[in-house]
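Worked example (supplementary).
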Amino acid sequence: MENEGLPQNLVLEELESRLRNDFTYGSGRVIGSMCTCPHPLARKTYTLFLDRNLGDSGLFPAVVKLEEETVGMLGKLLSNPKASGHIVTGGTEANTLALWAAKKLSKKKNGEVIVPASAHYSFDKAGDLLGLKIVKVGLNSRFQVDTEAFKKRLNSNTVAIVGIAGTTGLGVVDPISELSEIAAENGLYLHVDAAFGGFILPFLKEMGFSVPDFDFSLRGVSSITIDPHKMGLAPIPAGGILFRNEKLRETVAWNVSYMAGGETEQATLVGTRSGASVIAVWSLLKHLGKEGYKKIVTRCMRLTWKLAKEIREINGLDTTTEPTMNIVGIKSKVFNIRQVAKELRLRKWAVSLFPNHIRIVVMPHVQKQHVEKFLSDLKDIANRSGG
Ligand code: 0PR
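After joint prediction of all chains, the assembly is encoded as:
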């Protein structure tokens, strides 16, 4: 830091010039990400109430009420109006809170958590932090967790099992109803990671698509991650952790007595936390309603199906699996998929690269013309590589 500060306009000018060349969602070039342009209403409500801090909740009782309502609306979406939880920093914090609750409830010393091999790396982080062994179970030919293999890994140290409703790599939904039975029969905690799928599956279901059960309608489900800053169109940070009931949430709650607003309770990893995030999510759920989200999901899915169909028509390329949600995996038996990703990046497409496939996520900022331009570049790359 310099001794003398710069005038505001110079600071702004410098920032504008330095940030100009970063990717923007609006350009349509970011097609491998799970984030998107926040909805204009959420931008507005977020900035209007930037100073609200739920770490000292006694100062902001109205925001506490808005968070309760937000969690109530998400709970209802996930078949449980009595769910209790918080808007947190993201899926990583939500998944960590779930494993923390499971660990505390079990009181076991050398706890193990069984997760699908497709689980997000946040479970590895949480396991490391909480001293829990993360046991990974292989997938079947449809990239869902193999429940028979799952059962074989259960032992007296198991404290929780995890299922994913919308995997990070391919958007696949695990057989959560089977996991729910395993959990119920063995008295185990089942956490469902619907960080991505939580804002898609309920809407697809209402629109008549066949969607497997994955939420609190299943008796064994203890908690669910559902992230508004992914398909919910909320500004970052906005993750969601929902526990089946208030008692489970209280497992990770702490009382802090000295706060300016009086005694406060915190049941999140962070202390000071954004009330603006809560307000932004609340405003979006109120404004968009189910119909608004259905429209967004429909548009993303139509483009996803178009993309998947046309990828399969390109010589040498194929999709990894039929998309369940707005994620497409591109694989090849002919080309080195790493090389294809490299060529795409040279043409300024921000794609994600997994060990055996390229991940495309058709988020709400991706328009038809972007998909068409992407397909034409992909065809060109395949042709030049001799597919
Ligand atoms: N659970 C699942 C199923 C996820 O896919 C993710 C993140 C998380 C949990 C963790 O969420 P947070 O990142 O909010 O803590 N999935 C994306 C991924 O890792 C996140 C992402 C977002 C990646 C934007 C790239 C990007 O540009 O692939």
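Two points are worth noting when inspecting this output. The chain has a mean pLDDT of 97. The first strand starts at residue 84 and ends at 88.
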